[in-house]
Design a protein that fits this description.
Oligomer: single chain
Number of strands: 21
CATH topology of the largest domain: TIM Barrel
Strand order of the largest sheet: 2-3-4-6-7-8-11-12
Largest sheet: 8 strands, parallel, barrel
Number of domains: 2
Number of helices: 15
CATH class of the largest domain: Alpha Beta
Radius of gyration: 24 Å
Helix content: 10-25%
């Protein structure tokens, strides 16, 4: 069956079903990491409704229209799986100090915000079962290491956000262990137990190792608020602006809206400039809008991602081909501009830790990967890049026991996958990224035509061109054979950028019916080629090669 651009499950539960699972360890103080699925010991997990005797949700807190932080409005966000990124102590597992030692590399990509996947004590390699919301996973380092990383990033003008898991805890969390089978526990109402003996409970996605938290219990809400403030004030001096700069909220569709309103207000009262970024995995434009304003500052643009996921496929000849009329991208962007509140920030992206990697989905076609980057980076607002996408790492979810670890393989720093900071924790024979495959920073660093350097160039343009820093989005009426042409404009007070794209399998003549500005010569900012000049308001004809894009500006500055 032909494969889509990127794999997107139709429901968030399906995502968790594909995620790496684990056997809970016997002791929360010394978790044994594993990737074997299991049921919880001495209990039965049931995906049942919330019990009828659960207290009614609290009234929604008074609405306070906190604004999204300006520093993220056009930010470049880089997602890091700590275990896989950079290993500073040679134990094979990536760590916080390793990230600190690669800040120069992140700056070369113009990254200004780093998102760390879960950093807390856990029983799994993925970390989404949290044993202690107030501690650092000892495999990743210490609390002081996190303080040092945040300080080093702040010194460079960069921000640091972490994953915050609100919907569930680990089966090995001490509060759950105390309440399991113990109705008299002080934590009996912290979870959704479904029988009087407290031996059955509601679990996220039906996975027994992920007991759901009871957000109708004010003690639970207070605990989660206190955890957020703890990370915002890393050094404990009462200043909430010098620690973690915000949070990426995992699974933001399960906890009730009243919880998120109250939790966000607590975060914003401590630091109005903190970022609250939600993972709301919905596919349609109207489904996303209600989560803005009072619950989240920013949301990942899953509706656009879903559209691109169905944009094309790999044919029988092994070649990826776009099949979607690209005008649909324009229509979806325009509908979001019209529907979503102005203060909400959308994050454009085309892959993350829960999707198959782009390189695998397009058959390794580097030109298509460059085109995908040029599409996402011309769209308004923030952009998120999953570690390793900039070098074309491969990855497709597999079966037991490793599941999503195939999507989260160690970052390839070297051609032979050996050297300082190289993580080596995942060395299974059927892994996707292997020595000498051309997919590494070392192999691409000196090649001006490499995917890595294409990303560096595009991201440089993205962060320096006024038109891409908050410019309005506008459709340009483009005509071409086969409906594979796309043309858009970004317009700021000082600059207009025109992006023209050929999504087709061969060169095509594209006509822009009314070009937005006049220029004696047009120079493509992406590739450097010169094209004939334009006349404002007049048709403009250009021939583009297959799978390429050009960016023109009226005022290069």
């Amino acid at each position: 069956m032909p494969r889509k651009l990127t794999f997107f499950p139709v429901a968030l539960i399906a995502v968790l079903a594909a995620c790496t699972q684990s056997t809970p360890s016997p002791s929360p103080s010394a978790p044994t990491l594993t990737t074997e699925p299991t049921a919880a010991p001495a209990a039965t997990s049931v995906p049942s409704p919330v019990p009828t005797d659960t207290a009614a949700p609290p009234p929604t807190p008074e609405f306070i229209p906190y604004e999204a932080p300006d520093w993220f409005e056009n930010g470049i966000l880089y997602e890091i799986y700590v275990r896989s990124f950079a290993d500073s102590d040679g134990d094979g597992v990536g760590d916080l100090n390793g990230i600190a030692q690669q800040l120069d590399y992140l700056e070369s990509l113009h990254v200004d915000v780093v998102w760390l996947m879960p950093i807390h004590p856990t029983t799994t390699v993925h970390g989404y079962d949290v044993i202690d919301f107030f501690a650092v996973n000892p495999e990743y380092g210490t609390h002081d290491d996190l303080v040092n990383l945040a300080d080093a990033m702040h010194a460079r003008g960069m921000r640091l956000i972490i994953d915050f898991v609100s919907s569930h805890a680990s089966v090995q969390h001490p509060f759950f262990q105390d309440a399991l089978g113990n109705p008299a526990s002080d934590y009996a109402d912290w979870f959704h137990f479904t029988n009087d003996a407290h031996t059955t409970y509601q679990a996220f996605g039906g996975f027994a190792y992920l007991p759901r938290l009871n957000h109708f219990n004010p003690e639970v809400v207070d605990h989660l608020k206190e955890a957020a403030l703890f990370w915002m004030d890393l050094d404990g001096d009462g200043d909430y602006s010098d620690g973690i700069d915000g949070f990426r909220i995992d699974n933001a569709t399960f906890p009730p809206p009243e919880y998120f309103v109250e939790w966000r207000q607590a975060v914003k009262q401590a630091n109005p400039e903190a970022l609250v970024l939600g993972e709301v995995w919905v596919e349609q434009v109207p489904q996303l809008g209600p989560f803005f304003t009072d619950q989240f500052d920013a949301l990942f643009n899953f509706p656009i991602l879903t559209l691109l996921a169905n944009g094309g496929s790999i044919g029988e000849d092994g070649v990826y081909e776009w099949t979607m009329p690209p005008s649909l991208i324009t229509a979806r962007v325009e509908s979001q501009i019209a529907e979503y509140p102005e203060e909400g920030i959308l994050v454009q992206f085309f892959s993350n830790h829960d999707t198959d990697r782009l390189a695998s989905e397009v058959g390794g076609d580097v030109a298509i990967q460059k085109l995908a980057a040029a599409v996402s980076l011309v769209l308004p607002e923030a952009f998120a890049l999953y570690y390793g996408e900039e070098i074309g790492m491969f990855g497709v979810a597999g079966g037991p026991p490793h599941y999503d670890s195939y999507r989260r393989e160690p970052m390839d720093w070297y051609a032979d996958q050996e050297g300082p900071l190289q993580a080596t924790w995942f060395q299974v024979p059927d892994r996707w990224n292997v020595p000498g495959d051309g997919v590494s920073v070392e192999e691409q660093e000196a090649d001006p035509d490499s995917l890595l350097n294409a990303y560096r160039h595009l991201l440089d343009l993205r962060t320096t061109l006024p038109a891409l820093q908050g410019g309005d989005f506008a459709d340009l009426d483009a005509a071409a054979v086969g409906r594979k042409a796309w043309a858009v404009a970004r317009v700021s007070e000082t600059q207009t950028l025109v992006g023209i794209y050929n999504f087709g399998p061969e060169a095509v003549e594209i006509t822009i019916r009314a070009f937005p500005f006049s220029s004696e010569t047009l120079v493509d900012l992406i590739g450097g080629a010169e094209f004939p000049g334009s006349v404002e308001g007049e048709p403009y004809v250009i021939i583009l090669e297959s799978g390429t894009a050009v960016w023109f500006v009226d005022n290069p500055q």
